[in-house]
Amino acid sequence: MSAEETLLDTLALMQARGVHRVLIVNDHAGLEGILSADDAIDLIAEAMNNLIKLVRHEVKNEQHDRP
Fold first, then answer.
1. Is residue 39 part of a domain?
2. pLDDT tens sequence across 7-27
3. Alpha carbons 30 and 33: distance in angstroms, whole number
4. How do 31-36 and 21-25 pair as beta strands?
5. CA–CA dist 39, 13 (Å, integer)
6. Per the CB 3.0–4.6 Å rule, which of 18, 19, 32, 51 could disulfide with 24?
């Protein structure tokens, strides 16, 4: 997997190949890192948490702006 692929692309690849870890390589085939399924879960959980915070903030702003 290259560093330019999205997390969703990578998860689809992992599922298709039945693997729990993938190597992340740069354009010169150099190792950049390893992504595990647990890493992906952590990233998605963090993104969801940030989205929840954003929605709560927006709801609070809308409630404050109403007469």
1. yes
2. 999 999 999 999 999 998 888
3. 9
4. antiparallel
5. 15
6. 32
Residue 2 placed within a domain: no
Name the token pair of 27: 């354009």
Neighbours of 51 (CB within 10 A): 10
Burial class (CB in 10 A: 0-12, 13-18, 19+), 39: middle
**pLDDT of 27:** 86
- Total of domains in the chain: 1
pTM: 0.70
